[in-house]
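Notebook, bench 3.
Goal today: get a predicted structure for Gluconokinase from Seriola lalandi dorsalis so we can plan the truncation constructs. The sequence was checked against the plasmid map this morning, with no discrepancies at the termini. Length recorded as 190 residues. Pasting the sequence as submitted so the record is complete.
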Amino acid sequence: MIYIVMGVSGCGKSSFGAFLSEKLGWPLYEGDDFHPQENVEKMARGEPLTDKDRLPWLLKLHEVIQRERCSGSDAVVVCSALKCLYRQILLYGSKALTFSSSPDQEILPPITADVFFLFLHGDYDLIHQRMKSRRGHYMKADLLRSQFDVLEPPLEGENVLSLDIRRSITDMAMEVEKHIIGLKSSPVMP
C-alpha cells in the first residue's frame, strides 16, 4: 500500500507524513527532498513553479512509487500533487503526458487500490497563519495563493481519502488506520 499525502504548502503534509510513517512503520519519502535545486531556489525567491519546473520532480517521485509498488512494499510519500495531471504523472509517469494530450480522454483509469491519496485540506487563512509562523522552510507564505489557484481537489475516482486539517494529527492517522483495516477486510480489492 502506498499513501501519497497531498495538499497545498503549509497544510501539514510533512508533519502528518512523518507521524503516519512512524505509526505504521512504513518508509517515508519526503517530496521536498526530490526537488531539483533550481526549483528550491526559485521558490525561495518567491516565484511559483510552472508545470515544466515540476515535471522532473514528479517523474522522480513516480519512480519511487513504482519501485515500492513493484517490490510489494508499503510506503508514505509526501507530495503536493496539486493538479489532476500531477497525480496522474505520479501514478503513470510519462504515459500520463501522452494520455493527457488526447482530447477524447480526461483521466487515465483509476490505479489499483494499492495507491491512495490522502488529501489534507483546510481554508486559506488557517494555512497562511501556519506558514507565517514556520521557520527555515524555503516555501514562503506569499506563494500560498498561487498554490490555491492551481489546486484541483481530487475526485472520488482518484482513490482519495480527504482529511480536514482542523483535526489533530492523531485523529487523522486513526482515520487512515481505519481505512487500511477496511481495505484489508474487503472481500475483493478493486
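The chain is about 45% helix and 15% strand. The radius of gyration is 16 Å.
Flagging this for group meeting.
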